[in-house]
Design a protein that fits this description.
Structural class: mainly beta
Shape: elongated
Largest sheet: 6 strands, antiparallel
Number of domains: 1
CATH architecture: Roll
Distance between the termini: 14 Å
Length: 101
């Protein structure tokens, strides 16, 4: 998966198209990412009598498929490629500008 935690991404498809945000969590097994401020859902929390907590409705981010986001560079979407250094390390590269990510 080419999108990782703490990357700045832009949503390119879906109800939040055009929104940008930082990746909070990456879920590579499911090919999904959680982006802050994107795909907000309302989750109903059950009351807990033993803990004395009241029931409430919480707004939180849900995961979004990684194909619906792209890495943001200067506010525009860019694809990600890879390049190998002389010492054998793998480096992510922006396809738009050719710069290292």
């Amino acid at each position: 998966m080419k999108i990782k935690k703490d990357d700045e991404v832009i949503v390119i498809a879906g109800k939040d198209k055009g929104a940008t945000g930082k990746v909070i969590k990456s879920l590579p097994k499911e090919n999904r990412v959680v982006v802050e401020g994107v795909n907000l859902i309302k989750k109903h929390k059950k009351a807990n009598q033993a803990g004395g907590q009241q029931g409430e409705v919480v707004t939180q981010e849900a995961s979004i498929h990684v194909s619906n986001v792209a890495l943001a560079e200067d506010g525009k979407a860019t694809r990600v490629g890879y390049r190998f250094e002389e010492d054998g390390t793998k480096v992510r590269v922006s396809r738009r500008s050719g710069k290292d990510i």
